[in-house]
Amino acid sequence: MDDDVLSNDYYSRMLDAVKSAKFCNILTHFDYGVRRLNLSVNAFRLIAEPYLVNIFKNIIEKNIAFELNAKSFIKYGNKELYEYAIPLYISLGGKLFTLGSDAHVAEDYELGFKEMKNLLIKNGIFELAVYQKQQLIMVNI
């Protein structure tokens, strides 16, 4: 598939899912659909931003946290996409962040957490959203 077609398909589906979700705590894999594409941040922004603005507005309204995904951040080298998306989310009023290992093997557990925490701190975020029995708990980074 063409990068534009694939990206538009992925983000339109994500927007539909977020809008229709009756109950959800965390938006994960914000970049999964483009994870293996070779998109610059600017190309990503041009394709995804119209969708992301709507997606982020919806999750903010529903108090759904935004996940930083370690596999994407570290293993797929998409740190720059997070450096773009985090300030966008914050600019729309977003405050809830989580970290996800996406660990399919034990040695990947908490992979990149230090780097992701540092990026959040750089953006003025000092707490993470943690859910226990579906209840939001804010913890210091």
TrEMBL record:
Keywords: Amino-acid biosynthesis, Histidine biosynthesis, Hydrolase. Gene3D superfamilies: Metal-dependent hydrolases. It catalyses: L-histidinol phosphate + H2O = L-histidinol + phosphate. The keyword Ribosomal protein does not apply. It comes from the Bacteria. Pathway: Amino-acid biosynthesis; L-histidine biosynthesis; L-histidine from 5-phospho-alpha-D-ribose 1-diphosphate: step 8/9. Transmembrane segments: none annotated. The keyword Plastid does not apply. Its EC number is 3.1.3.15. InterPro entries: Histidinol_P_phosphatase_HisJ, Pol/histidinol_Pase-like. Belongs to the PHP hydrolase family. HisK subfamily. PANTHER family: HISTIDINOL PHOSPHATASE-RELATED, HISTIDINOL-PHOSPHATASE. This is Histidinol-phosphatase.
